[in-house]
UniProtKB/TrEMBL annotation:
UniProt GO BP: methylation
Keywords, sorted A to Z: Methyltransferase, Transferase
Official protein name in the record: Class I SAM-dependent methyltransferase
Record has Transferase as a keyword: yes
Organism: Streptomyces thermospinosisporus
Keyword Transferase: yes
Protein origin, superkingdom: Bacteria
Pfam families linked to this entry: Methyltransf_24
GO molecular function, one term: methyltransferase activity
Length: 212
């Protein structure tokens, strides 16, 4: 989620109807940290390739989930976990007529209840960004060949990636994860996303691709 993500939907830019509904709900409930459109279009494209289950941590009011649902093919299930009960309720209302979507309330680890995933978006826990938050384990949560997404980075200008002059350890965690082929995708001047694919053979090379 992005700090001013909800405001990005005030421009009148055309977005899928479900995304527009979720953004309106976020605005009405004063939630500003919605998924930005640049990130949302990436999620929509990735969701189109999923064949089983799509997961997300950090539902918010459902904007990112709406992008995922808008891209998912028929028969694909979507599961999202939200820690805040009020936001989980708002999101459930947004998707009340979308039976493929399930909203769970609680700690992000509840996402494990529906594993393994074809696509997993870590936006509200398990992404290695917070102190004391144990990172999600791709080998446990993803099918072989499944993809994981971690957003809200600023584009890196070199290697190793730096944040405020120091090595960006959360970003490095994913880019060099032994269970993933991972890459950084710049989406805007101030926004980048990491996408990783679980290795099919389980063999680790020690270093994943270093991104863009």
């Amino acid at each position: 989620m992005s700090r001013s993500g909800t405001d990005a939907y005030d421009s009148g830019e055309q977005v899928p109807p479900l995304v527009s509904r979720a953004a309106a709900a976020a605005r009405a409930h004063g939630f500003g940290k919605s998924c930005r459109p640049e990130q949302g279009r990436l999620l929509q494209a990735l969701a189109a390739g999923a064949q089983g289950v799509i997961g997300e941590t950090g539902t918010g009011c459902g904007v990112g989930l709406a992008w995922l649902a808008s891209g998912a093919r028929a028969g694909v299930r979507l599961v999202s976990v939200e820690l805040d009960p009020d936001r989980a309720r708002v999101a459930a209302e947004v998707f009340a007529d979308v039976p493929e979507v399930e909203i769970l309330t609680g700690d992000w680890r509840r996402i494990e209840e529906r594993a393994p995933y074809d696509l997993l978006v870590l936006d509200g826990g398990g992404n290695a960004k917070r102190a004391g938050d144990t990172p999600a384990e791709p080998a446990r949560l993803l099918r072989p060949g499944g993809r994981i997404v971690i957003d809200d980075f600023t584009p890196a200008g070199g290697w190793p990636p730096l944040l405020d002059g120091e090595v960006d350890l959360p970003r490095l965690h994913w880019l060099e994860h032994p269970d993933l082929h991972a890459v950084e995708l710049p989406l805007a001047k101030d926004l980048a996303t990491l996408v990783g694919t679980r290795r099919r053979d389980g063999a680790a090379t020690g270093h994943a691709p270093r991104g863009a």
